[in-house]
Structure formats: structure tokens, C-alpha cells
Write a sequence for this structure.
């Protein structure tokens, strides 16, 4: 009561109302970030039981695909090798957090944990962002390692700039909303994995991640513009080549747009019960 009375008193003083409003906003933001950090730390604590899975198995699929394509003579020159290696790595970075999030929510739904989460003092958005942030942070080093190994093996140059980390981080969030949708609608984790595989195969062949855009059918050249991996792959290649131009920022902006739209839909329009 005393604090409320003090706020009413100060708000009556000219020029103090705006200051109090700014102070309230900063206080809310600090509380929001504090809760987010707690959720992030809780999820990160679980990584100690599975870190070897991400570090050891993370590069296997991208490198295996490169080896297969090299054996089939589908990578004739370093330019093609750069295109395929960068697109392959960024695709796995997008799919990794999406799959991890969908599996976590599918298990939570199966155990009725989502009803328990509903009574705790945090929002759905904080939960999703914390889980997705941990998945992205643990995936980014393995994908950078994959690109580095591919560059040394296939002989293409790298001139990365700080935008590499920015693109990789926003790429990890770009399809998090899809992971939420799968997780809360899957009957169990096996169903979630099947749906994840369907999504991964669709975006792999419907966006210019591994296959150049000009080699795609005309209809896919247009539909690829509505898929986040298209902008993630273009932005990642530009950043690895040392490009700071408007194209890199455009791709980052599009990834943020997809992340905002899909996360808003997933956290506000989907019934988690």
C-alpha cells in the first residue's frame, strides 16, 4: 500500500509520470528475462546428459551427405562444394531445434506436463524460447565444425564475418513454431519424429538449400520464397563469404519475420491442453 501511495504521489508531479512508466517497463522486462534465464538454465542442465550426442553425432549426417555426393561426382568444383556444404549445415541447424522442441513437447504432453506448466508463473513464449535457445546454442558449434571440415577437405575458401553467428541464431528460431505445432499435436514421440522427417524432406527438396534455385522447377522457385530455409541458406552463404551487404540483412530480417509469425501462432493460437 505504501508503495502504491508513493507511485500515486510521484505520478502527480509534472514530468514524473513518464519516468514511472519507464521504470515499470524496465522492471517488467527484468522479471521476464529472469524467468527466461531460469528456464534456459533448467533446460541447459539436461544437456550434460546428452552433450556427446550433439557433439559426436551432429556432424555425421551433413558430412555423410557430402561424402555421398562427392562419390557420385555431384560436387565437381569448390564453388558447388561451398553451396552444398553451407546449405546442408544450415538445414540441420534449422531442423535440430525444431525436432528437439517437438520431441520435448510431445513427451511433456504424453506425461501431462503441459497442464503442470500452465499453473507455473511463466508464459508459453518464455518456455519455447528457452528450449529453442538451448538447442540452437548446442547445435551451432557442430555446424561450424562441419563447414570447416568440408572447407579443408573440398578446398573452398571461407571468409566469415560476425553475421555468421547472427544468421545461425535466428535460423534456429525460424521454424520453432512448427516444432511447437508438431509437439502439441503428435500422439507420442514416435509420431512427432515421423512428422519431423516429413517436414525435413519437404523443405530440403522445396527450397534452394542443396539444389540451386535456378535448377528447381518454376513452381518450386516461387514456393521456396515462403520457406525459412531459403533465406537461412542464402544469408549463411553470404556471411561465410564475408558479405556485409543489404542481402545479408534482408535474409536476417526475413528469418526474424518467420520466427515472429510462427511463434505467435504457436503460443497464442494453439490449444496446448
Amino acid at each position: 500500500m505504501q508503495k502504491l501511495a508513493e507511485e500515486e504521489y510521484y505520478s502527480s508531479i509534472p514530468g514524473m509520470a513518464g519516468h514511472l512508466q519507464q521504470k515499470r517497463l524496465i522492471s517488467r522486462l527484468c522479471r521476464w528475462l529472469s524467468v527466461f534465464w531460469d528456464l534456459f538454465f533448467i533446460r541447459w542442465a539436461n544437456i550434460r546428459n546428452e552433450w556427446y550426442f550433439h557433439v559426436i553425432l551432429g556432424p555425421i549426417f551433413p558430412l555423410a551427405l557430402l561424402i555421398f555426393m562427392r562419390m557420385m561426382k555431384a560436387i565437381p568444383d569448390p564453388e558447388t562444394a561451398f553451396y552444398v556444404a553451407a546449405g546442408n549445415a544450415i538445414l540441420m541447424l534449422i531442423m535440430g531445434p525444431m525436432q528437439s522442441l517437438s520431441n520435448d513437447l510431445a513427451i511433456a504432453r504424453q506425461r501431462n506436463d503441459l497442464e503442470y506448466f500452465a499453473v507455473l508463473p511463466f508464459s508459453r513464449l518464455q518456455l519455447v524460447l528457452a528450449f529453442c535457445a538451448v538447442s540452437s546454442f548446442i547445435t551451432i558449434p557442430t555446424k561450424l565444425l562441419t563447414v570447416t571440415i568440408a572447407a579443408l577437405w573440398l578446398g573452398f575458401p571461407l571468409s566469415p564475418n560476425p553475421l555468421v553467428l547472427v544468421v545461425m541464431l535466428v535460423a534456429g528460431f525460424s521454424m520453432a513454431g512448427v516444432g511447437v505445432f508438431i509437439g502439441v499435436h503428435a500422439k507420442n514421440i514416435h509420431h512427432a519424429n515421423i512428422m519431423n522427417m516429413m517436414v525435413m524432406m519437404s523443405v530440403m527438396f522445396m527450397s534452394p538449400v542443396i539444389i540451386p534455385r535456378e535448377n528447381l522447377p518454376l513452381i518450386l522457385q516461387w514456393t521456396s520464397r515462403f520457406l525459412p530455409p531459403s533465406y537461412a541458406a542464402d544469408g549463411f552463404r553470404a556471411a561465410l563469404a564475408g558479405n556485409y551487404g543489404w542481402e545479408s540483412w534482408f535474409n536476417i530480417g526475413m528469418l526474424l519475420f518467420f520466427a515472429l509469425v510462427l511463434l505467435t501462432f504457436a503460443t497464442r493460437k494453439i490449444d496446448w491442453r
User: Anything to note?
Assistant: The CA atoms of residues 103 and 190 lie 9 Å apart. The mean pLDDT is 82.
